[in-house]
Write a structure and sequence with these properties.
This protein has 188 residues and is of the alpha+beta class. It has two domains: 51 residues, no CATH class; 121 residues, NlpE, N-terminal domain (Lipocalin). Helices cover 27% and strands 30% of the residues. It contains four helices and eight strands. An eight-stranded antiparallel barrel has the order 1-2-3-4-5-6-7-8. The radius of gyration is 32 Å and the shape is globular. The two termini are 56 Å apart.
Length: 188
């Protein structure tokens, strides 16, 4: 706040100086100078230039092939991954459509013939060489989950491999690994 106040005082001093100079030129009398009883003359410093900010960083998309991809996870896929309950199979099987966008965002939409608790996931991603990290932002109960994967495009098929931890996986990580890596993702 103090820097704003001195900026305004400097600007006010400049305006007073310009006004006094204009008046003295118009009347032909010299401009008054500060005497022992007058207040000190304030001189204006150069006005600071406007702050410039660097552009927002571009997402690190590397050579990753952006676009829309689809895959299907079956009830048997979910069951064989260690989730045999009807609820788990219903909630984690279906067709998945993945949109990977140039702004560094992704969206995963699951469709199924049963009602789903979380059919849409959104997040951001970053690519480094043949590695991609998908970070989930929504739904909130999965906010911050990061899935590390390797990727390779073979024709119209995106092949993803699990690059995250290999032991001590949580149930969420096991299901994420199943989703990303069980079957190829076909480019649409």
């Amino acid at each position: 706040m103090a820097s704003q106040r001195s900026f305004h005082v400097a600007g006010l001093g400049l305006l007073i100086g310009v006004a006094v100079a204009a008046c003295s030129t118009a009347t032909g009398t010299p401009a008054p100078t500060a005497g022992p009883t007058a207040s000190p003359i304030v001189t204006a410093a150069a006005f600071p230039s406007r702050a410039t900010f660097p552009p927002a960083p571009s997402p690190a998309i590397g050579d990753f092939p952006l676009g829309t991809y689809e895959t299907t996870i079956t009830r048997d896929d979910v069951k064989n991954a260690g989730f045999p309950s009807d609820h788990d199979m219903n909630e984690n099987a279906g067709m998945f459509t993945l949109d990977v966008n140039a702004d560094g965002s992704w969206r995963l939409v699951q469709t199924s013939n049963v009602p789903l608790e979380n059919p849409v996931f959104d997040g951001t991603f970053a690519v480094s060489g043949d590695q991609i990290a998908f970070t989930t932002l929504e739904p909130t109960e999965f906010h911050g989950e990061v899935d590390m994967l390797s990727w390779k495009l073979s024709g119209s098929m995106l092949l993803l491999g699990w690059a995250g931890p290999s032991q001590g996986l949580t149930d969420v990580q096991v299901l994420s690994r199943l989703l990303w890596t069980k079957h190829p993702w076909v480019r649409q």
